[in-house]
Amino acid sequence: MSSSPVEKADALARQAAAAAPGQLSGFALYSRFALAGAICCSVTHGGLTPVDVVKTRIQLDPVTYNKGLIGGFRQVIANEGAGALLTGAGPTFAGYFLQGAFKFGGYEFFKQQAINLVGIENASNYRTGVYLVSSAFAEFFADIALCPLEATRIRLVSEPTYASGLVSGFSKMMSQEGIGAFYAGFGPILFKQVPYTMAKFVVYEKVAEAIYRQYPKKDMSDGLQTTVNLGSGLIAGFAAAIVSQPADTMLSKINKTKGLPGESTTSRLIKIAKELGFRGSYTGIGARLFMVGTLTAGQFAIYGDARLLDDRILETLRNPKQSDAIHLEGRQFDEFLLWYIA
C-alpha cells in the first residue's frame, strides 16, 4: 500500500534530520531560540525605555501630559530632568529578557509540537491556526515570568520617588504588599499580551510569506532577508499595538497604586474600564504605535539573524530522491516548503 503525502513528508523530514548528525535538537535547539528571543526583546524594549516612560505618563495622567509624544518628552525633561526618561530601565530589561526567552523559544517549541501532532502537510495547510495556538501558549508562560517585573516598572514610572531601582522597588512591593501585588495585573497583562503576541506572530508570518512567495528567500542576500524581517515586523507591530492598546492602558492604571482594602482585582478592572471608556482606553496610542512598531521590527530583525536554518533538510526537501519523492503538485509543494523553512 502506498504511503500518503503526509506520511512521505514526515518520513522524509525525519530521514533528512537523521542525516545531519551535527544538527542541534531538543533542549540545545530551543535554548538557542530562547536566547535569541531574550536578546531581541530585552535590547529593543530596554532601548525604548524613554518612549515607554512617556507613553505610561500619558496613560496615567492625560490631563497633564496632553501634548503628544514629543511634547511628553519635553515635559518629563523639564519637570524631572533627562534621567527620568530611564526610569524603570532595570525591570524593563530584566522582565523582557525573561519574557522574550519564553515567548520566542516557546513559540518555536509549540509550533514543532503541532507539526509532530498533525504532520507537516496538515500543519502547513492550517498554519494560521498553528501560529495562533503556538503564540498563545508561549505568551501565557512568558507572562508568568514578566508580570512581577512589569508591575515594578509601572510603579517606578508612576511614582518616581517610590524607589531607586529594580531591586529596591521589587523588595519594597514585596514587603509592603505581598506577592499578590506583583500579579494584580496578571489578568490585564494576559488580555494585553496574548492577543498582542498572536497578532504579532500571525501578521509577521503572513507578510513574510507573501513577500517570499513573490521573491524566493533562497535568492535573497542576508541583507535583503533582514530588510524583509524589519518590514514584516513593523506591520506586525502596528497590528499588535492596535489590538492590545485597551489592555495596556488598564494594566498601567491597575499597577499605578494598590487597591482599596478588600477590593478584588476583578472589581478594580471593571471600575477602571468604566472610567476609561472606549476612547480613553486608546489614550497614548500614538506613542505606543511608534514604540511597538519600532521594537517589533527590531525584534524580528535580530531574531531572524540569530535563528538557525536547517539547510540539509531544506536541500533534501528541494531535491528528494526519486524513491522518496513527495507527490505534491505545483503551488501545494511550494507552500509546503515555505511552511517548513518558516
Supply the key terms.
mainly alpha; 77% helix
Layout of helices and strands:
Elements: H1 5-18, H2 26-47, H3 49-60, H4 68-80, H5 89-118, H6 120-125, H7 127-158, H8 166-177, H9 186-214, H10 222-256, H11 265-281, H12 285-306, H13 311-318, H14 330-341
Helix pairs in contact: 1-13, 2-5, 2-12, 3-4, 3-12, 5-7, 7-8, 7-9, 9-10, 10-11, 10-12
Largest sheet: none
Kindly state the number of beta strands: 0
Q: Look at the helices and sheets and give the structural class.
A: mainly alpha
| Rg, nearest Å | 22 Å
N-to-C CA distance = 32 Å
Low-confidence stretches: 308-318, 320-338
The sequence of SSEs as H and E is HHHHHHHHHHHHHH
Q: What number is the mean pLDDT?
A: 80
Q: What general outline do the C-alpha atoms trace?
A: globular
State the helicity in percent bands.
Answer: over 70%
Give the oligomer, counting copies of the same chain as homo and different chains as hetero. single chain
| Count of DSSP H/I helices | 14
